[in-house]
Specification:
The protein has 14 helices and 12 strands. With 334 residues, it is α/β, with parallel strands linked by helices. The relative contact order is 0.12.
């Protein structure tokens, strides 16, 4: 079996393993969950009618970061609480009835603009509006423990609520859990397989340059620089692509903060950077720093600004594919 076949098998094996992991948990079930009892007994015995009601009430049990939730077989009215869940649910073919934005009254991410028409804004990610969520009468609410644990009980009183543990580097596991919650497991396997196939193509087209191209991922702020490492969202895609990191960044951690004086830690053949700060340190100081000017990526013209919404806050499979687009555009299609 060639390298392409081996990698495909590995990706599919990972997909199956993650799907299997989503089905079990040692956590205690949430006793507040209950299904509705409705239906018609036309053409059925009383026993059949009661059995049908019982099945409708039970639905499916999904183990998640807060315990267990009983969800409908096919959720139709989904509320999401972060960009990653929004990205993923749309990729699975379901349009949420409600979703937040990074900041209050911001638009939804531009890279999803053709998919978000009609979705109601439920407030900011940090402070979703519970009254608006209740008005939307969701079947399922999708969020994350590390962001919304404090309001989990209130959300769970509105609708069955499924939380991933955290956001970012766990985005593939999150996709599978969210897919399980809304009854779209096959769709999740399909989109991840397509992602894996694109990475295979990237590796093949890079050839020998793949292992020789060290990549840095930076977020310049007003007074410091954050380097995103291997356990960041964008870091996982760069690693999936087979691209190495400079030695100072080759760490299984989320991020590291460096000052202007530590510019040498930003080494690499290519520097991808993004920032929401218009007065970020890259523009105000680094460009005039002699050490910065000596960096290999700077001298080669390989300091590339990329989209903050995908590289930083996308956190879903569509954002991951946009990052792969950038890798093709700047490293392959030169």
């Amino acid at each position: 079996m060639g390298k392409k076949g081996i990698l495909l098998v590995m990706l599919l094996s990972l997909a199956l393993a993650l799907a299997a992991c989503g089905g079990g948990s040692n956590q205690q079930p949430d006793a507040s969950q209950a299904g509705s009892e409705e239906g018609s007994a036309n053409g059925h015995t009383e026993d059949e009618h009661e059995a049908g009601d019982s099945e409708a009430a039970v639905g499916r049990t999904v183990a998640h970061a807060m315990g267990e939730a009983i969800v409908p077989e096919q959720a139709e009215r989904v509320v999401v609480l972060d960009n990653g869940a929004l990205d993923n649910v749309l990729a699975l073919g379901v349009k949420p009835v409600g979703a937040p934005t990074v900041f209050l009254d911001d638009p939804f991410p531009a890279y999803l603009v053709d998919q978000t028409e009609g979705i109601r804004n439920i407030g900011s990610i940090d402070e979703p509006n519970l009254e608006v969520i209740a008005e939307l009468r969701p079947d399922v609410i999708l969020g994350s423990k590390d962001t919304h644990e404090a309001i989990y009980d209130k959300l769970d009183q509105i609708a069955p609520t499924v939380f991933v543990e955290t956001l970012g580097y766990t985005w593939k596991e999150n996709l599978y859990l969210q897919a399980e919650a809304i009854g779209k497991m096959q769709e999740a396997a399909d989109v991840l397989q397509a992602y894996g196939e694109r990475l295979l193509e990237f590796r093949e087209r890079m050839g020998d340059r793949l292992t020789e191209t060290e990549v840095s991922i930076l977020r310049p702020r007003s007074d410091h620089i954050r380097i995103y490492l291997k356990q960041s969202f964008s870091g996982t895609i760069v690693e999936d692509a087979g691209l190495p990191r400079p030695p100072a960044q080759d760490k299984a951690e989320f991020a590291a903060q460096v000052s202007e004086e530590q510019v040498e830690d930003l080494a690499g053949d290519v520097i991808f950077w993004f920032s929401r700060d218009t007065d970020n340190i890259l523009k105000t100081k680094l460009m005039n720093n002699p050490i910065w000017q000596q960096l290999e990526a700077v001298q080669a013209g390989k300091v590339i600004e990329v989209d903050t919404e995908t590289w930083l806050s996308g956190l879903g499979v569509q954002a991951a594919n946009r990052i792969v687009d950038d890798l093709f555009a700047h490293l392959v299609e030169e």
